[in-house]
């Protein structure tokens, strides 16, 4: 570690060091006209000037110079121009810097910013002095289970630009800088950069671009666990920076001794260690603020914090923070060995799961469950009455003179089947969740069949109503040339083919719908009512492409009938008005449109009502499956119930506003009454 001429040692002692007469790994030299020697002292990150005949050097560039102006990282080349300005190859900073009358500036490789950074002057702006003690705050660094003392420092920047933070002291410092805030519970969150340099000068160096309108936090800790001692941080950059201490000494509020024994309760934490003993503590907070809880023990302890309550059967419920154990989420069902991540779409199972209490009779369930059960019965009765009245209307020959009557007759049947499947679905979910010992074969059968059959009847009902609208539009188009026999023939074929067409779009549900079952550890039985420790959920496991297809099918079946109904109604009104305008010229086309609208306004109102009532089901089907429905139960449950109301409104929408169908209903009703009268 010396610069050697042919006759003598020009600089250095032959032993590496950082004293004024020493060098460490020198990489380049320059000799000026006065025979003064400039040395790029790479190992000490500095430029040393050895004047002719002198053995002690002067640091002219680098953080240890008399007037620190720039931070260098292993300079390996230097040149002096005629005006004695230095040009330095700053190797590990990947740049070339030069001096001028107002300090150093970057010339080439200016942190990837090119010429925008050529006027950066790295002058000493601030020195921060502090120490780490046994009362300093503690955190876990890089998922290490050891405790580290740390100090957090807020950095306020007055001008955007590149800055350097250099830490040193009688500790082995480790520096990190964060954007916005530092979270000791998650040291990787908001992390911009971190650095540790175990060189002889024991320091860290952070070179980073900072913006004036942003908050930054510099965190100083130690390389080894629980290191204490004094340290300093030097800030260099374009303009003044303000360094303010954020962390305060720890004020220990409580030390609570605990002990886990064979008699401690157990729960199912994860598949590697399914039978875990645990202890719970209730925390009462008198003053809102930031608190740190840590443990010191001779066991590998995991910690979890819950809000309100801890349910060992559902470790993810109410979980606020965890450390050391497996991460849990409300989007995940099961455990690390056997789990399912919920996708898009809320089901009745998802809405009611947290509200239903297992092994509890219906009378002892929550008010929401009992009220829902009552509403389903009311909806079934209303749907039954609607279907009976509609069937009475459309089974008569007068109502079946054209295809519309046949479509509506089929719709009266499918609407009854849809509302019946809705009732079956509700009670299947309620009873199987209450009775946890239900056979798995029964659960699998219900999971695979009930929901697809329910959708089949719902979608079929919507398309049958759309067929009615199309037939009415064709009637206006054909006028006196409308073929009633052909209309009935098309209706018969459509009623037979349409169920198969709808069913084909739902085949993917049968293929991907399955029952998800996972078992809890036996030790849980003594702390919960569930003796079987079995948890089941009906799930659909779609790939991204199948999920896109499923969403498209949903839109087609819910929005498609509305579009057909609306455009058919508009054609009836404007097409009918055009035909009348041609026959009766004494009125304007606008007057004919208004007259047509007054006569057929129910054709516009009906599809809009049906769409509005179907929108909640569309929204529920697109919501994430891990939405916390328990917080707004009636919002989700009410929307789910409303989406089935169109199946109860056929008589009110199609029969009641029509003079022809009301006449057919009265005639059929009178015939039935005469037959039943003794």
Q: How would you describe what is shown here?
A:
With 678 residues, this protein is of the alpha+beta class. The protein folds into four domains: 1-121, Thrombin, subunit H (Beta Barrel), CATH 2.40.10; 125-245, Jelly Rolls, CATH 2.60.120.380; 249-328, no CATH class; 348-672, Rhodopsin 7-helix transmembrane proteins (Rhopdopsin 7-helix transmembrane proteins, Up-down Bundle), CATH 1.20.1070.10. Helix content is 35%, strand content 23%. The protein contains eleven helices and 28 strands. Strands 12, 13, 15, 16, 18 and 20 form a six-stranded antiparallel sheet that branches. It has a four-stranded antiparallel sheet with strand order 3-4-5-6, with no helix packed on it. A four-stranded antiparallel sheet has the order 7-8-9-10, with no helix packed on it. Helix 4 (440-478) runs antiparallel to helix 5 (484-504). It is elongated.
Uncertain spans, ≥5 residues at pLDDT below 50? 112-121, 521-531
CATH class of the largest domain: Mainly Alpha
Mean pLDDT: 78
- Total of helices: 11
The fourth-level CATH homologous superfamily of the largest domain is Rhodopsin 7-helix transmembrane proteins
**What oligomerization state is this entry in?**
single chain
Beta-strand content estimate: 15-25%
Task: Kindly identify the CATH topology of the largest domain.
Answer: Rhopdopsin 7-helix transmembrane proteins
The tally of strands reads 28
Helix content: 25-40%
Helix and strand composition category: alpha+beta
The span between the termini is 125 Å
Q: In the residues, how many domains can be counted?
A: 4
Q: So what's the overall shape?
A: elongated
CA gyration radius, whole angstroms: 40 Å
- Reported CATH architecture of the largest domain: Up-down Bundle
Biggest pleated-sheet summary: 6 strands, antiparallel
Subcellular location: Membrane
InterPro entries: 6-blade_b-propeller_TolB-like (IPR011042), GPCR_Rhodpsn_7TM (IPR017452), NHL_repeat (IPR001258)
Organism: Adineta steineri
NHL repeats: 14-53
């Amino acid at each position: 570690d010396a610069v050697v001429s042919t006759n003598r040692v020009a600089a250095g002692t032959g032993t590496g060091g950082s004293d004024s007469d020493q060098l460490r790994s020198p990489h380049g030299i320059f000799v000026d006209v006065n025979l003064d020697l400039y040395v790029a002292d790479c190992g000490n990150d500095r430029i040393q000037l050895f004047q002719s005949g002198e053995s002690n050097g002067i640091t002219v560039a680098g953080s240890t110079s008399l007037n620190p102006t720039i931070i260098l990282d292993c300079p390996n080349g230097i040149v002096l121009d005629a005006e004695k300005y230095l040009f330095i190859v700053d190797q590990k900073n990947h740049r070339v810097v030069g001096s001028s009358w107002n300090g150093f500036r970057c010339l080439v490789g200016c942190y990837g910013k090119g010429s925008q950074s050529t006027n950066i002057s790295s002058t000493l702006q601030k020195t921060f002095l502090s120490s780490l003690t046994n009362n300093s705050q503690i955190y876990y660094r890089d998922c290490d289970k050891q405790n580290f003392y740390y100090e957090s420092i807020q950095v306020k920047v007055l001008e955007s630009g590149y800055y350097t933070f250099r830490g040193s002291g009688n500790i082995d410092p480790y520096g990190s800088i964060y954007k916005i805030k530092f979270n000791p519970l998650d040291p990787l969150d908001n992390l911009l950069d971190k650095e540790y340099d175990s060189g002889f000068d024991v320091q860290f160096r952070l070179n980073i671009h900072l913006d004036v309108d942003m908050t930054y936090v510099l965190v100083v800790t130690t390389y080894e666990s629980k290191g204490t001692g004094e340290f300093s941080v030097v800030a260099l950059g374009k303009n003044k920076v303000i360094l303010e201490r954020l962390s305060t000494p720890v004020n220990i509020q409580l030390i609570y001794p605990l002990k886990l024994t064979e008699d401690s309760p157990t729960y199912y934490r994860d598949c590697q260690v399914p039978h875990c003993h645990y202890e719970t503590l209730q925390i009462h907070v008198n003053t809102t603020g930031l608190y740190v809880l840590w443990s010191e023990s001779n066991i590998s302890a995991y910690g979890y914090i819950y809000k309100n309550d801890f349910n060992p059967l559902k470790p993810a419920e109410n979980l606020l923070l965890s450390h050391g154990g497996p991460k849990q989420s409300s989007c995940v069902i099961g455990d690390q060995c056997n789990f399912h991540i919920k996708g898009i779409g809320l089901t009745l199972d998802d809405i009611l799961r947290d509200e239903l209490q297992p092994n509890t009779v219906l009378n002892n369930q929550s008010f929401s469950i009992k009220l829902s059960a009552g509403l389903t019965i009311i909806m079934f009765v209303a749907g039954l009455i609607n279907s009976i009245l509609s069937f009475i209307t459309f089974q008569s020959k007068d109502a079946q003179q054209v295809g519309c009557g046949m479509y509506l007759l089929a719709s009266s049947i499918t609407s009854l089947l849809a509302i019946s499947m809705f009732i079956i679905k509700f009670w299947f979910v309620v009873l199987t969740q209450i009775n946890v010992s239900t056979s798995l074969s029964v659960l699998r059968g219900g999971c695979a069949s009930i929901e697809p059959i329910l959708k089949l009847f719902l979608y079929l009902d919507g398309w049958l109503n759309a067929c009615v609208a199309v037939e009415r539009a064709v009637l206006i188009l054909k006028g006196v040339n409308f073929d009633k026999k052909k209309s009935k023939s098309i209706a018969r074929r459509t009623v037979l083919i349409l169920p198969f067409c709808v069913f084909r779009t739902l085949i993917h549900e049968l293929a991907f719908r399955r029952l998800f079952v996972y078992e809890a550890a036996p030790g849980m039985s003594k702390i919960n009512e569930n003796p079987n420790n079995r948890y089941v959920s009906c799930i659909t496991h779609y790939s991204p492409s199948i999920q896109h297809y499923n969403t498209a099918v949903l839109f087609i079946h819910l929005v498609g009938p509305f579009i057909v109904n609306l455009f058919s109604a508009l054609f009836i009104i404007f097409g009918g008005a055009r035909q009348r305008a041609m026959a009766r010229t004494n009125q304007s086309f606008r007057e004919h449109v208004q007259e047509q609208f007054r006569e057929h306004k129910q054709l516009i109102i009906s599809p809009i009502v049906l769409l509005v009532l179907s929108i909640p089901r569309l929204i529920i089907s697109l919501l994430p499956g891990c939405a916390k429905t328990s917080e707004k139960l009636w919002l989700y449950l009410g929307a789910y119930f409303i989406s089935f109301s169109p199946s109860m409104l056929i008589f009110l929408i199609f029969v009641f506003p029509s003079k022809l169908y009301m006449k057919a209903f009265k005639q059929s009703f009178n015939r039935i009454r005469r037959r039943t009268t003794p």
